Structures are given as structure tokens and as C-alpha cells.
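User: Structure please.
Assistant: Input sequence and predicted structure:
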Amino acid sequence: MPSPIWTSPFTADDFARASANTANATMGIELVEIGPDHLVGRMPVDARTKQPAGILHGGASVLLAETLASWAGHFCVDRTRHTVVGQEINANHLRPATGGWVTGTARPVHLGRRSQVWEIRIANEDGKPVCISRMTLAVIDRPALAPDA
């Protein structure tokens, strides 16, 4: 089993509290697993996340991917000195989802001193891939007055 990548402990309840009154809560995103080297979250495919054609909106998939990568990246740095910000994200939409839940798994590709790269694989309830995304995070010095998130 790989060694944990997290520099500070966190829970799904921490995620839920931090997500209150944000896009994460509005879209129904939940953190469901914290592994030693990955995060798993899920999002409903419903009126909040569908496009007018009745399928999962690509932007909702990107929101799930960015949420998981950003949250994971945040807990891979010394939060007293650094934070992470999104620098780039891409997504390849592979198949539509029309209902139920989609589940995203974020794993690091690179955890560097000044950048991180994450791969996020989103699947439907049958385990079939819906979207593959990659996100680059910049690791920046924490501003002196910024609250710890």
C-alpha cells in the first residue's frame, strides 16, 4: 500500500462543512472516500447537473473534477505556509450520464514543490467512464492574513 500523501488529517464531515453555501453543496457533491493516495467524491445526475438535452452537463463534470483535485491538493501541502490554486483543467467527455450518480476519483500524477498535477476519472453507476480530467494546481505561499480553509 502506498504511503499516505496527506500532510494533515481531514474527514468527509470537514468537506461537508467547508462546502456549505458553495457550488459543491448546490450541486450535491459529497466526499465518499479518503484513500492513502486518492479522494473519491460523487455527484447526482439530476436537475442541478443536467443540460437541457437531459444528460450530465460537461461543466458539472468539470466542477466535480476541480472540486476533488483542489481539495486533495490543499491537503497535500503544509497549510500553515502554502495553499493551492487552479492553474489549468481539461476534460474529455466520453459518454453521457442521464441519471443516478457519477463518481470521481482524484489521484496525483505529480506532487511538486510549486505545482501539482491531478488526474480525475469520473464514472457512472455501472463503472463506465463518463469523463477523464486533468488539473494543474500552483502551490503558492499562503497570504499572511488569509483564513485557513
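The first strand starts at residue 30 and ends at 34.
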